[in-house]
Amino acid sequence: MTNEIHPSSVARILKCGMSKNTPDTIIDSSSKPARMGSAMHEVLAHMISNNLEARPDLKPYLKKYDLADEDQLGYLTWAGFEAWKEIRDDIKVLGIEAQGIVHIQDDWAVTGTTDLYGETLTDELVVLDWKSSQAESDTESQLTAYAFLISKTLKKNYETIKLITVWARLQTITIVDITAAELEKFEDDLMESIVSDQYSPGDHCLYCSHQYECEAKSKMLISVSNDLQIKSDNSIASIIDLAKQYPKVKILEQAIKDFKDIVKDHLKNNDPVLLDDGQYLGLSTRKTEKLVSDKAYEMICEEIGIEVSESFNTFKDAISLNKSKALKIISDQAPRGEKKEAKAAFIEKLKEEKAMTVSETFLFNISGG
């Protein structure tokens, strides 16, 4: 049986060899952002494969990926293709959505699908990755893994490799050049990590499914908790030493968040827990009312007797509106002595028209025995 390593997991494995024994982080492909990213990739692959300059009809892609926001998909594909037009004259495309697998040990292989690869006019390897997200860490390691896959598949040595990340949402292109020696070192480091039996906890633990059973991570959390016992020494050197704990503090913060989520889920359906000091840990709730902007704007305009103009529709998304502001507008327009009733009546209208949503937040609450 071959154990597969996906490029998205390479950064974690390079930092902690034993994390290779955990499954790849499963990306929820059913989530809306993931489906939007898949649709963007497919549209761009279609356009470049067929030498299209005009974007195709997006409706089939929206239907395929169960999406409704044509504007967002249109923006992402437009931004991605505009970025491509900036660099395409220097690239001879050799493959799009190219699947590959390279065995690096008897029972280990790197496998993945490269968004696009090719060569420059000066015979440099180009590996390109589309990103629909805001930002991600360790993209260089991920793209280096794709470059490793492509160079081994082509059985060709390149003196220089260009790793290109197109951040469509940010309209940004990141280009990193690595040398043949750096690619060779990447392979050596990956091989070393695969044979390693050492745990090396750090912020990469956030992407490891073994993190909840990892003894090394548990010890690290205890260590960083002790290190955070702030001393009276506020010298620059002391503060710098403290700041160096930040990567470990991120893990501690995640552990605290996980603790809160687990305990809250239990307390939602169970009695308060008796604590060692005789008090009880339970939950209290806080309700938050939020306006559905489009409906609320129209209802306010109707309520105070003004017409919703086309220019207002254009700029309303840039205007902040909350319940307090909305009720102040209604109150200001109501006759003296009727302001309270006017606000109450408007709230009821908002609820009836589903122009106001109510969310519930659960908070820890400690009460006496």
Helix content: 40-55%
**Regarding CATH, which class of the largest domain?**
Alpha Beta
- What's the overall average pLDDT, rounded? 86
Biggest sheet character:
6 strands, mixed
Structural class: alpha+beta
Strand content: 15-25%
Can you tell me the number of structural domains?
A: 3
Using only CA atoms, what is the Rg?
27 Å
In the CATH hierarchy, the architecture of the largest domain is Alpha-Beta Complex
Which topology of the largest domain does CATH recognise? Lambda Exonuclease, Chain A
How many strands in all? 9
| Run of helices and strands | EHHHHEEEHEEHHHHEEHHHHE
**Spans where pLDDT lies below 50 across 5 or more residues:** none
Q: What general form does the structure show?
A: flat
Report how far the terminal alpha carbons are from each other. Answer: 57 Å
User: Counting H and I runs of at least 4 residues, what is the number of helices?
Assistant: 13
Topology:
Layout: E1 3-5, H1 7-15, H2 32-49, H3 59-64, H4 70-87, E2 91-105, E3 108-120, E4 125-131, H5 139-154, E5 160-167, E6 172-179, H6 180-195, H7 215-227, H8 236-243, H9 246-268, E7 273-274, E8 280-291, H10 293-304, H11 310-315, H12 323-333, H13 339-352, E9 356-367
Parallel strand pairs: 1-3, 4-5
Antiparallel strand pairs: 2-3, 3-4, 5-6, 7-8, 8-9
Helix pairs in contact: 1-5, 1-6, 2-4, 7-9, 10-12, 12-13
